[in-house]
Design goal:
Layout: E1 18-20, E2 23-25, E3 32-36, E4 43-48, H1 52-70, H2 74-90, H3 92-103, H4 107-127, E5 134-136, E6 144-151, E7 154-158, H5 166-178, E8 181-185, H6 191-203, E9 211-213, H7 218-227, E10 231-237, H8 240-251, E11 256-260, E12 265-269, H9 275-287, E13 297-303, H10 307-319, H11 339-354, E14 358-361, E15 376-381, H12 386-389, E16 396-402, H13 405-413, E17 420-424, H14 428-437, E18 442-445, E19 464-465, H15 470-475, E20 478-485
Parallel strand pairs: 7-8, 7-10, 8-9, 10-11, 12-13, 12-17, 13-16, 15-16, 17-18
Antiparallel strand pairs: 1-2, 3-4, 5-6, 6-20, 11-19, 14-15
This protein binds adenosine-5'-diphosphate (ADP).
């Protein structure tokens, strides 16, 4: 089924079939499922509802393509990735429209995501030429010890709906740069952005079988990807609950894994902070993508002496935000991905209220529809409230008080998550003390926007392992092979 309501400059970017071995193919039984617009529920497209058999064929295609792809020169791989990057940039507007339609975020943010997602392809195109091995001093002159880096092989990529473009490019780009081939399973809600990327990859000349995409039943597709011996690695971004399940499923074949799981980011504002900068950082970190970001500030820890000042500045800024459809001009916050997600957020707000939190801004579902939640600020929040203990994944800023630096650190670390944390202070000593004490993979210091292709993104504790982006991001797709060469002196 084709839909024409997107007004794409390039209608061929709207793909609805699975992408296996360089061909667009329907599900074996012809089944499809509907992708809808979260802003209003309208049907956008019917998309191939695949299962185990299509996934097996995608793995076969990726396995068959592996030898050829890993044997291309790094420079050839870099050139292919570079062409893909350029085609994505040239189609930025169409890709952003597709993304907003299926995901809901404001068009300006969608354009930003396309550019951000493409930046990983550019970065890893460049990095592919800089995969270095090592030589090691031997214990005897009769030996030479050499370390080679090799691609891990076929990689499964399972990605979420919150960044349907960038979460995929962050995985596919380093995988391809390293010489791996991939089978991707995009989130059910947002396959159109993924398919458009595959279409452009094909146009860029990336050979058939190197990138495959299967959409449909997560458990059936995931069951094959995690248990198949030819798949040597799983790179997953999603919830901690599903990530733990997939880790267990990967144990049977001892797969390498990269896990980007949920967070519970503290945003700590000390009394010496630049309050305007802290509010700007809070808005960027908390309300981008309607709060549906794993590095989103989840809890604001604000020092007693500036609590009222920070609160009133944040409330004024939040009240000035415009909620609406992502494709309407002037909108700052779009809908949540679906009504269940909005219900969960409203439930968290209500739970906090019953335990004594005050609503300083927003606090309700909007009249715009079942997926729209008003940007919300809660004050007098305490640690036992679910809003502090769970990942909110919505536009709600809960403000907790603290008195001393030690209290702030203890509160910040009181979670099993460890993805991102934010600290606002102008005291250089405190910056180092608090950054050192933070049990997190990423710390934003006087900065609310921390993610870019040059830096290592990833968490510790139950937020996962592995890093995406940066030179470290390539390591996740490389194996080490050690050559011990003897008989040199004979
Ligand atoms: P979110 O809360 O962001 O939707 P999920 O962890 O549910 O996070 O989803 C992230 C990705 O994991 C999606 O592509 C989803 O389809 C996939 N997924 C969910 N359950 C499974 C499963 N049992 N096997 C494989 N993939 C799954």
């Amino acid at each position: 089924m084709r839909e024409t309501g997107f007004n794409l400059n390039d209608p061929e970017l709207l793909r609805t079939a699975a992408f296996i071995d360089g061909s667009w193919v329907p599900a074996d039984d012809g089944a499809s499922y509907l992708v809808t617009d979260p802003a209003c529920g309208r049907t956008l497209a019917g998309v191939a509802n695949c299962g185990a058999n299509e996934t097996l064929r995608a793995i076969d295609a990726a396995s068959a393509a592996l030898l050829g792809w890993r044997n291309t020169s790094a420079k050839e791989r870099a050139n292919s990735l570079r062409r893909w990057f350029e085609l994505i940039n040239a189609s930025c507007e169409d890709l952003a429209r597709l993304l907003t339609a299926e995901q809901g975020k404001p068009l300006a943010e969608a354009r930003g995501e396309i550019t951000y997602g493409a930046s990983y392809i550019e970065w890893f195109a460049e990095e592919s030429k800089r995969i270095y091995g090592d030589t090691i001093q031997p214990g005897s002159n009769n030996q030479r010890l050499i370390v080679l880096k090799e691609p891990v092989g076929v990689v499964a990529c399972i990605t979420p709906w919150n960044f349907p473009n960038a979460m995929l490019t962050r995985k596919i780009a380093p995988a391809l740069a390293a010489g791996c081939t991939v089978v991707c399973k995009p989130a059910e809600a947002t396959p159109l952005s993924a398919f458009a990327l595959a279409e452009l990859a094909q146009r860029a000349g990336i050979p058939r079988g190197v990138i495959n995409m299967v959409t449909g039943d997560p458990a059936k597709i995931g069951g094959v990807l995690t248990r198949h011996a030819q798949v040597r690695k799983l790179s997953f971004t999603g919830s901690t609950r599903v990530g733990k399940q997939l880790l267990a499923d990967c144990a049977g074949t001892v797969k390498r894994t990269s896990m980007e799981l949920g967070g519970n980011a503290p945003f700590v504002v000390f009394e010496d902070a630049d309050i305007d900068a802290a509010v700007a950082g809070a808005l960027a970190s908390k309300f981008r993508n309607a709060g549906q970001t794993c590095v989103c500030a989840n809890r604001f820890l604000v020092q007693d002496s500036i609590y009222e000042r920070f609160t009133s500045a944040l409330v004024a800024a939040v009240n000035a935000m415009t909620l609406g459809r992502g494709d309407e001009a002037g909108v700052d916050i779009g809908p949540m991905i679906n009504a269940d997600a909005a219900d969960k957020v409203i439930g968290l707000i209500n739970h906090a209220r019953t335990l004594g939190a005050r609503v300083a801004a927003g606090g309700r579902r909007s009249k715009l529809g079942s997926t729209f939640v008003e940007p919300t600020v809660l004050t007098e929040v305490t640690s036992e409230m679910r809003v502090c203990r769970e990942e909110i994944f919505g536009p709600v800023a809960p403000l907790q008080r603290f008195t001393t630096e030690g209290d702030a650190i203890a509160l910040a670390n009181d979670t099993r998550a460890g993805l991102a944390a934010y600290v606002y202070t102008r005291d250089m000593g405190r910056i180092w003390r608090v950054s050192d004490a933070m049990e997190y993979g990423i710390v934003g210091v006087n900065e609310g926007t921390i993610s870019n292709e040059m830096a290592p993104f990833g968490g510790i504790k139950e937020s996962g392992h592995g890093r995406e982006g940066s030179r470290y991001g390539m390591d996740d797709y490389l194996e080490i092979k050690y050559l011990c060469m003897g008989g040199i002196e004979s």
